[in-house]
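Handout, page 2. Input:
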Amino acid sequence: MIKKLLGLLGLFSFLAVTPACSDIDSDNRLIEVEAATAVRNVVIEDFTGQNCINCPDAHAVLEALVEQYGAEHVIPVSIHAGSFGMSTSMTNYDRGLVCLMQPEGNQLQNVYGEVNSWPIGVIDGRGGFVSHDTWAQLVRVELERTSEAAVKISASYDEAANKAVIKTVVTPYADLDATLKIWVLESSIIARQRNAEGLVPDYRHDNVWRATVTPLEGEAVTLTDGSEASFSHSIELRNMEKERWVAENLSFVAILATPDGYVNAARCSLATGK
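Output:
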């Protein structure tokens, strides 16, 4: 496991006209650095796909950043999208084919513009697409940025209704007109993934973007400096022909956003009582 990393090896590059699964020279990916002190939480939107042979390299960077700074401060979100994604409409559980690209995945990707190379990501909703070998440095910068609000989230499972009940509390340190986004993630999904060596049929997919609880663009909120605001949401867990959520593997992310990027975020696991 990678312990510490940094990789400001150039700004992000939009690759040529045709989609590509970008490769990075293994000698130039990661450089060891001292850890920064985390003063806020950072969301990494990792745009990925099951047919992207270099996307597992980006997943390894995410794992290393979580290990370095802690799961409470670094929030990875793996959004399956683009030419290398496999739509959930192709899922066939009887044949062992599980596909992870939601229709909204491409909508989330398109918010940031056109992309012709994967893996690619966005750090805290600001600055556009960046290559995974710059994530470490950019996350460090974001962790040290002053936040205008604190965000807390909790989620409990109503087994009788088969739904999650989510509570979000925001404490602003300034007057803010913002949007609140609540996303559903699922980890420990065993499904196929291509890598540089070939097809891995039992790859473990973590932090997979499954659904949005709020509208995709977020829910408008007006916040007053020092006045705590609470929000309640719920969503039914999916257990359908094409998608089967496992309650104990679900987590929820609350993101407070402005047009300039993400103000702060928080993540919690679904409390199932098991």
